[in-house]
Design goal:
Blueprint (H helix, E strand, L loop, with lengths): L20 E4 L4 E5 L9 E4 L4 E6 L8 E11 L4 E11 L5 E4 L4 E5 L9 E4 L4 E6 L8 E11 L4 E11 L5 E4 L4 E3 L11 E4 L4 E6 L9 E10 L4 E9 L1
Parallel strand pairs: 2-6, 8-12, 14-18
Antiparallel strand pairs: 1-3, 4-5, 5-6, 7-9, 10-11, 11-12, 13-15, 16-17, 17-18
């Protein structure tokens, strides 16, 4: 109250020691199929000061593997936050396999079968295993199996059916003449036929010749193979 004065001071330091708040946009672990595209979604930053963002790391979408993207955020006071995202490039897609040629092939017995293989499309290296055989000399249905496995173990199997058939009638030729003339009272000798076929055959001969009666007689030769293909030819015997 007498005017005597004393002054004291306090220093208040306003500081920023809080690191930036950084949250990933999108997932922290991203899975990308090999050969597809990766879209960088970056981060969202909250801080009292201005900040700078540095993003490091690359993703090779053509190579299977695990990749790390690092986001480093530094504010004006040097406070730093580092967050990461993992990008896994995977190959879970089975190879695309298409048959060259027909899925069902028909081969005549005794003919030949040409293996046409398959066409393969895949992001990785592949191995092809072909199994199954075709016996062109035996009528039946045969299966050829194509198994394709890529470097990541993805597999695809496809098959082809090969049917060996016998649709050709036996080839039958008369032994001797097609028209035979016998004098009444003489003799007739049956000369039969010659048969050519891929399969076993049975021959049935019908008809008789009465050499004591003038007339025209027909001898019929019926040949049937194991696949029921049939050929019939005749011979005329004139007494």
């Amino acid at each position: 109250s007498e005017g005597n004065t004393t002054v004291v001071t306090r220093t208040v330091n306003v500081v920023d020691t809080t690191a930036p708040e950084v949250t990933l946009n999108g997932l922290s672990t991203v899975t990308v199929e090999k050969g597809e595209s990766y879209t960088e979604e970056s981060v969202t930053i909250i801080d009292q000061s201005s900040t700078s963002l540095t993003t490091t790391g690359l993703v090779d979408v053509n190579t299977v593997g695990s990749y790390i993207i690092t986001y480093t955020v530094v504010d004006a006071e040097g406070n730093t936050t580092v967050v990461t995202r993992t990008v896994n490039v995977v190959d879970t897609t089975a190879p695309e396999v298409t048959l060259n040629g027909l899925q069902v092939v028909t081969v005549e017995k005794g003919g030949s079968y040409t293996e046409e293989g398959v066409t393969i499309k895949d992001q990785s290296n592949t191995t092809l295993t072909t199994s199954g055989t075709v016996d062109v000399n035996t009528v039946g249905s045969y299966t050829i199996t194509y198994l394709v496995v890529d470097a990541e173990g993805n597999s695809f199997e496809i098959t082809r059916t090969v049917n060996v058939v016998d649709t050709i009638a036996p080839e039958v030729k008369l032994n001797g003449l097609q028209t035979v003339t016998v004098e009444k009272g003489g003799s007739y000798t049956e000369e039969s036929v010659t048969i050519t076929d891929q399969s076993d055959t049975t021959l049935t001969i019908t008809g008789t010749v009465d050499i004591n009666t003038v007339g025209s007689y027909t001898i019929t030769y019926k040949v049937v193979d194991t696949e029921s293909n049939t050929t019939i030819i005749t011979r005329t015997v004139n007494v």
